[in-house]
């Protein structure tokens, strides 16, 4: 029998076998037996050495044809068998429609985001704009324009993380004051803005200090702005957050960018002013710094200080949230522990 006949027979027999086969393992056995390194086709190819040089390419081409045809048949059968296995599995599978579904856990805004949004809503209602500032800020805006020239001793209270000598992570939101004032067109009306955001300080972390925390800056510039405007505004804010029965108190303080400057306290929400462990037995809790914008700060940002005056404040929403919800350690806000955070799922 010629080699071509042998190949023809091999092809017919293998195709019949492939056709009959019922399992993937047996199919693989056929593939190895016929197409493998020691398989029947390889054997035929080996015996080609005995052929005449004219016949070799003819038989070689035919052998390749047979091999390709069998390879395709094997692949097709493999697909058919896999589909059959899958269909059998699906047919035997039953779905228990009475099983309870998987609960999808929805997230909730972080408690700090919630308090910042609550404060934004209050100020939007009072006609303020909400401005976004830069977290990476120039020394010029963070300090110089806030009346804190280089070597000013008050810089020590706000040591920062420097990127270059002139570029730093801002230590407070006050630089937004300068950036907003220089942009504002006062011929179109007064400036009223708040600016919430992250600030950074080289503070050692403890229960009430974090190296990264939030501030909300507030700034109003118009003609004839007084300390009374500041006090009235803060009273509205703090009563909305902590309740109508809260009183507020201004104490003299010092900030280079405001004159006069004040620290603002609210009467203790726990004891109502009688004295307790929350207010360190003083009846009052300090919540923010504020004051009348220093004329030099106005002038440095191109505002005519003989015509305009303004008030500014900087409050720490982290501390407000601690007071409002009775959280005794600021670090809980930044640890991303769901057991802590889910307690503030107040929005549903
Ligand atoms: C300032 O940062 C001023 N820029 C605020 C200001 C603005 C005054 C405008 C006058 C006019 P102070 O360093 O006190 O001030 O910070 C303001 C508030 O930020 C504090 O009352 C406190 O609530 C919060 N705060 C300060 N340091 C930290 C800290 N390490 N961790 C958490 N909160 C802090």
UniProtKB/TrEMBL annotation:
<keyword id="KW-0648">Protein biosynthesis</keyword>
<comment type="similarity">
    <text>Belongs to the class-II aminoacyl-tRNA synthetase family. Phe-tRNA synthetase alpha subunit type 1 subfamily.</text>
</comment>
<dbReference type="GO" id="GO:0016740">
    <property type="term" value="F:transferase activity"/>
</dbReference>
<dbReference type="InterPro" id="IPR002319">
    <property type="entry name" value="Phenylalanyl-tRNA_Synthase"/>
</dbReference>
<dbReference type="InterPro" id="IPR006195">
    <property type="entry name" value="aa-tRNA-synth_II"/>
</dbReference>
<dbReference type="GO" id="GO:0005524">
    <property type="term" value="F:ATP binding"/>
</dbReference>
<dbReference type="GO" id="GO:0000049">
    <property type="term" value="F:tRNA binding"/>
</dbReference>
<keyword id="KW-0436">Ligase</keyword>
<dbReference type="InterPro" id="IPR045864">
    <property type="entry name" value="aa-tRNA-synth_II/BPL/LPL"/>
</dbReference>
<comment type="subunit">
    <text>Tetramer of two alpha and two beta subunits.</text>
</comment>
<dbReference type="InterPro" id="IPR022911">
    <property type="entry name" value="Phe_tRNA_ligase_alpha1_bac"/>
</dbReference>
<feature type="binding site">
    <location>
        <position position="259"/>
    </location>
    <ligand>
        <name>Mg(2+)</name>
    </ligand>
</feature>
<keyword id="KW-0460">Magnesium</keyword>
<dbReference type="GO" id="GO:0005737">
    <property type="term" value="C:cytoplasm"/>
</dbReference>
<dbReference type="InterPro" id="IPR004529">
    <property type="entry name" value="Phe-tRNA-synth_IIc_asu"/>
</dbReference>
<dbReference type="InterPro" id="IPR010978">
    <property type="entry name" value="tRNA-bd_arm"/>
</dbReference>
<dbReference type="GO" id="GO:0140096">
    <property type="term" value="F:catalytic activity, acting on a protein"/>
</dbReference>
<dbReference type="GO" id="GO:0006432">
    <property type="term" value="P:phenylalanyl-tRNA aminoacylation"/>
</dbReference>
<keyword id="KW-0479">Metal-binding</keyword>
<dbReference type="InterPro" id="IPR004188">
    <property type="entry name" value="Phe-tRNA_ligase_II_N"/>
</dbReference>
<keyword id="KW-0067">ATP-binding</keyword>
<keyword id="KW-0030">Aminoacyl-tRNA synthetase</keyword>
<keyword id="KW-0547">Nucleotide-binding</keyword>
<dbReference type="GO" id="GO:0000287">
    <property type="term" value="F:magnesium ion binding"/>
</dbReference>
<dbReference type="Pfam" id="PF02912">
    <property type="entry name" value="Phe_tRNA-synt_N"/>
</dbReference>
<dbReference type="GO" id="GO:0004826">
    <property type="term" value="F:phenylalanine-tRNA ligase activity"/>
</dbReference>
<dbReference type="Pfam" id="PF01409">
    <property type="entry name" value="tRNA-synt_2d"/>
</dbReference>
<protein>
    <recommendedName>
        <fullName>Phenylalanine--tRNA ligase alpha subunit</fullName>
        <ecNumber>6.1.1.20</ecNumber>
    </recommendedName>
</protein>
<keyword id="KW-0963">Cytoplasm</keyword>
């Amino acid at each position: 029998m010629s080699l071509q006949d042998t190949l023809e027979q091999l092809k017919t027999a293998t195709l019949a076998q492939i056709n009959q086969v019922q399992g993937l393992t047996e199919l693989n056995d056929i593939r190895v037996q016929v197409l493998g390194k020691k398989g029947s086709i390889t054997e035929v190819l080996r015996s080609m050495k005995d052929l005449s040089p004219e016949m070799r390419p003819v038989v070689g081409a035919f052998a390749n044809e047979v091999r390709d045809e069998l390879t395709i048949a094997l692949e097709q059968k493999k697909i058919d068998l896999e589909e059959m296995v899958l269909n059998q599995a699906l047919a035997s599978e039953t779905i228990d429609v009475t099983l309870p579904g998987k609960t999808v856990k929805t997230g909730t805004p972080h408690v700090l985001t919630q308090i910042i949004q609550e404060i934004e809503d209050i100020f939007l209602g009072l006609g303020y704009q909400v401005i976004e500032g830069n977290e990476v800020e120039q020394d010029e805006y963070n300090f110089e324009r806030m009346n804190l020239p280089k070597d000013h001793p008050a810089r020590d209270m706000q040591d920062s993380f420097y990127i270059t000598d002139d570029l730093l992570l801002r230590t407070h939101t006050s630089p937004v004051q300068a950036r907003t004032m220089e942009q504002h067109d006062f011929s179109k009306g007064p400036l009223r803005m708040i600016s919430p955001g992250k600030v950074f300080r080289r503070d050692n972390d403890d229960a009430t200090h974090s190296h990264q925390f939030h501030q909300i800056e507030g700034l109003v510039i118009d003609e004839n702005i007084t300390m009374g405007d500041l006090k009235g505004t803060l009273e509205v804010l703090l009563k909305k957050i902590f309740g109508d029965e809260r009183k507020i108190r201004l104490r003299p303080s010092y900030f280079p960018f405001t004159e006069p400057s004040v620290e603002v306290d609210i009467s203790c929400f726990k004891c109502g002013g009688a004295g307790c462990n929350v207010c360190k037995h003083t009846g009052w809790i300090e919540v923010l710094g504020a004051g009348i914008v220093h004329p030099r700060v106005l002038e440095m940002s191109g505002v005519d200080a003989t015509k305009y005056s303004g008030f500014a404040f900087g409050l720490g929403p982290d501390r407000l949230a601690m007071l409002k919800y009775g959280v005794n350690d600021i670090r809980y806000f930044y640890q991303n522990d769901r057991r802590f955070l889910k307690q503030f799922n107040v929005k549903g």
